Amino acid sequence: MFTRKIQKTALAMLISGAMAGTAYAAPEVLADFHGEMGGCDSCHVSDKGGVTNDNLTHENAQCVSCHGDLKELAAAAPKDKVSPHKSHLIGEIACTSCHKGHEKSVTYCDACHSFGFDMPFGGKWERKFVPVDADKAAQDKAIAAGVKETTDVVVIGSGGAGLAAAVSARDAGAKVILLEKEPIPGGNTKLAAGGMNAAETKPQAKLGIEDKKQIMIDDTMKGGRNINDPELVKVLANNSSDSIDWLTSMGADMTDVGRMGGASVNRSHRPTGGAGVGAHVAQVLWDNAVKRGTDIRLNSRVVRILEDASGKVTGVLVKGEYTGYYVIKADAVVIAAGGFAKNNDRVAKYDPKLKGFKATNHPGATGDGLDVALQAGAATRDLEYIQAHPTYSPAGGVMITEAVRGNGAIVVNRDGNRFMNEITTRDKASAAILQQKGESAYLVFDDSIRKSLKAIEGYVHLNIVKEGKTIEDLAKQLDVPAAELAKTVTSYNGFVKSGKDTQFERPNLPREIATAPFYALEIAPAVHHTMGGIVIDTKAEVKSDKTGKPIEGLYAAGEVTGGVHGANRLGGNAISDIVTYGRIAGASAAKYAKDH
């Protein structure tokens, strides 16, 4: 075995040679290179006969022992370039998420971004959707082979809803296995930036904000065009402050409170300084799930929910990326696998006008949870309601949080003019942007807004923010008429001073755009959230399509469900949804497992 220093030096020489165009006989994949260095033992435990598990626990530990962890690699990266190792992702990110052994390596970041990293032994990242029942014969054979292991509760999905369910179930005394098909945990939660809506909270009281749970209920119903399930909305709002307390008790910082579109009151909770809420909440939940001894398995796709002759859930069939098919016997199953916004074929099926749209979601949001629920006989609702987020960055491949607008930014078109109330609901904002020249617009803000929201620093890091010393300078970079943009900003600042937007009736005017330097981001709508999904009741029990009654032992939470958000989700309600209903689903599943 090479020492860590020697191996790092050897890899550095290989990479520098590749970048400089040096001629050498390059191995095709990492396994070839490591084979030359130290044989299979440099990655694997030889007496185990292959990989240790689907997390590749041993293999990833070997990578870190030689090359360092993400923090070390990020610290060594050039300061003037985006580092692929400076990650906003949660958990213990595995090296093998990108660096493959026996096949071409991939840049997983390209699932969302387009940085063009030139990775040694690299191939092109791509995701082909494979139906959950694509290999039915092999699946039936695995089921016939019998149960491999047993647990109390299986949770499908490692986003906020899944992690909340796992923590909640563990706290209720259940043995939990959490299964995630992606190599990276966190789902869409790790990408959410805006905030978590909650009413009558301690942070609101400390800031002197008066809010009522009934107002949150009314706002949510109105935003969803009143087709939401009122009982689910009541649970969302009435438990929201408790969910903030629950997160806080586990170490979360939810002290900053702002406002997002459709809200009548400032109730969007986030970390100090307006830092991104999703990655923070997901990391807190991940840490607490790990602390509680949750068995978390990545690269593990649930392809079937198993039931007995009476329709009662008995477990799941899993396809491990490296270990193959196997059966887990479980008393209860929680589906928290998210929506299907990244599956454009399915999106277009329900809403044809969104065909070909980009999506703000993580690559695993393809609808697997919905598919296994349908196989199990679950009822669905509202699948035709799919939300486009108005502020997606085409250049960066990321969603720009609604909190930028909430903190005072304005939206202008290519003529330099405002054309809407910036904090209207997402459906209305998206429609307004699509009516503009180029079907995109610019988000304009100043240094005071940048300093008010830490999330903006991530966009600066991605090199997608334009900067100007003056408004006129910024206009030149955007190829927007300077005089018009200056006039627009001056007019808006006048509204801020008077406290009333007489042009578009924007309800909150937190600050003028007057502190240099000035900034702008190009934005366009992208598919963001699928409001429809599995029908659940207030206990997170999944209802049967045939009987309308709960399917015994089956629960669901988060974006995979329908009814909470109606026809249109309000910004800030998703995190509230996943935490509140994730907690309920985990507790309900644990109780069912205990009683049965």
UniProtKB/TrEMBL annotation:
<feature type="domain" description="FAD-dependent oxidoreductase 2 FAD-binding">
    <location>
        <begin position="152"/>
        <end position="574"/>
    </location>
</feature>
<keyword id="KW-0408">Iron</keyword>
<dbReference type="InterPro" id="IPR003953">
    <property type="entry name" value="FAD-dep_OxRdtase_2_FAD-bd"/>
</dbReference>
<keyword id="KW-0285">Flavoprotein</keyword>
<comment type="similarity">
    <text>Belongs to the FAD-dependent oxidoreductase 2 family. FRD/SDH subfamily.</text>
</comment>
<keyword id="KW-0574">Periplasm</keyword>
<dbReference type="Pfam" id="PF14537">
    <property type="entry name" value="Cytochrom_c3_2"/>
</dbReference>
<keyword id="KW-0349">Heme</keyword>
<dbReference type="InterPro" id="IPR036280">
    <property type="entry name" value="Multihaem_cyt_sf"/>
</dbReference>
<feature type="domain" description="Tetrahaem cytochrome">
    <location>
        <begin position="33"/>
        <end position="114"/>
    </location>
</feature>
<dbReference type="InterPro" id="IPR050315">
    <property type="entry name" value="FAD-oxidoreductase_2"/>
</dbReference>
<keyword id="KW-0732">Signal</keyword>
<dbReference type="GO" id="GO:0008177">
    <property type="term" value="F:succinate dehydrogenase (quinone) activity"/>
</dbReference>
<dbReference type="Pfam" id="PF00890">
    <property type="entry name" value="FAD_binding_2"/>
</dbReference>
<keyword id="KW-0249">Electron transport</keyword>
<keyword id="KW-0274">FAD</keyword>
<feature type="signal peptide">
    <location>
        <begin position="1"/>
        <end position="25"/>
    </location>
</feature>
<keyword id="KW-0560">Oxidoreductase</keyword>
<keyword id="KW-0813">Transport</keyword>
<dbReference type="InterPro" id="IPR027477">
    <property type="entry name" value="Succ_DH/fumarate_Rdtase_cat_sf"/>
</dbReference>
<dbReference type="InterPro" id="IPR010960">
    <property type="entry name" value="Flavocytochrome_c"/>
</dbReference>
<dbReference type="InterPro" id="IPR012286">
    <property type="entry name" value="Tetrahaem_cytochrome"/>
</dbReference>
<protein>
    <recommendedName>
        <fullName>Fumarate reductase</fullName>
        <ecNumber>1.3.2.4</ecNumber>
    </recommendedName>
</protein>
<keyword id="KW-0479">Metal-binding</keyword>
<dbReference type="InterPro" id="IPR036188">
    <property type="entry name" value="FAD/NAD-bd_sf"/>
</dbReference>
